Amino acid sequence: MSVEAAARGRGEGTADDATRYLTFTLNGESYALDIFHITEILEYRNLTVVPMTPDFVRGVINLRGRAVPVIDLAIRFAKGATSIARRTSIIIVHIRGMPGSGDAAAADARGNGQDIGILVDAVSKVETFTAEDIEPAPSFGAGIRADFISGMAKRDNDFIIVLDIDHVLSLSDMADLATAIPEDS
């Protein structure tokens, strides 16, 4: 659900209007994800590299017997690769079905969907933002694709980029990228 839809559905400025977001850093920028999508946060662990996958797929981890792909958000945002350091983390998110393919909630009830790990520099904390705290997504100037952003959360004298996880980790986009074969020039 977009930030705007959440604001319309719950009213403006009430305590019930607040949504919790996990904040994290990536290349010195602050980002946030709605905690509704997050299943767990892991310390960085060695990844098994899978040949012939797009660059942003750094590998897979074994998560309780399941192979979970790990996406490097820095590469996905065309900002270079994430350097592995002491606070590097993997955020496990659950993506329901294929965005835009119909009833994602019904698909998830049938067990469809995918757990995906996202590699970040460091997890910061859980923040609560109201609809009044979140500005509409800019059409340009954030350094990443506009459709990846659901809004800009005001915090102190700065902004935190609120990601639209369904677009950032669009299974159909990633499938298209994974099957794309570079042309020989």
Key features of this structure:
185 residues; 5 helices; 11 strands; disordered N terminus; globular; six-stranded mixed β-sheet; CheW-like_dom_sf; five-stranded mixed β-sheet; alpha+beta; OB fold (Dihydrolipoamide Acetyltransferase, E2P); disordered C terminus
Characterise this structure.
By secondary structure, the protein is of the alpha+beta class. The protein has helices at residues 3-10, 73-76, 104-109, 165-168, 171-179; strands at 19-26, 29-34, 38-43, 57-63, 66-72, 89-95, 114-120, 122-129, 134-135, 149-155, 158-163. Strand 10 (149-155) and strand 11 form a beta hairpin. Residues 1-15, 98-110 and 180-185 have low confidence and may be disordered. Residues 18-174 form the CheW-like domain. Pfam families: CheW (PF01584). One of its GO terms (biological process) is chemotaxis.
